[in-house]
Amino acid sequence: MAALIRRIISTTKAPAAIGPYSQAVVVDRTIYISGQLGMDPASGQLVEGGVQAQTRQALVNMGEILKATGCSYENVVKTTVLLADMNDFVKVNDVYKQFFSSSYPARAAYQVAALPRGGLVEIEAVAVLGPLSDAP
After folding, report:
1. Cα separation, 87 vs 109, whole angstroms
2. What is the pTM of this model?
3. Which of 66, 135, 75 is nearest to 105 (CA)?
4. Quick one: which of 69, 80, 88, 119 is 20 to 30 A from 52 by CA?
């Protein structure tokens, strides 16, 4: 059996990893995107404005990583949303649906005890390389 190729994805248009991990890894046609916080890539700091601003920035960061692979939000098939407070669920959804407007990816959402750097939300994703079409 031929070995699958693993490709590490890194872009300066999204925050650098803050630990021993990659922004994303591609294996075969699958892209595994590490959890994105609402951090400004230039300053490395969380954006101000609460959970909605951090959600927007986390998804913008994800979009830059997707672009680095030649993909877009339409290629995302699964996300996991980690919340510091489950009471923010509706606020996060209000922003989330601006990025995923049709053929929503599968998703899980959890409240966690804490997120890195005191973040309010973190979003990770799995995407598929190449064109996707919906079944009729």
Report:
1. 12
2. 0.96
3. 75
4. 69
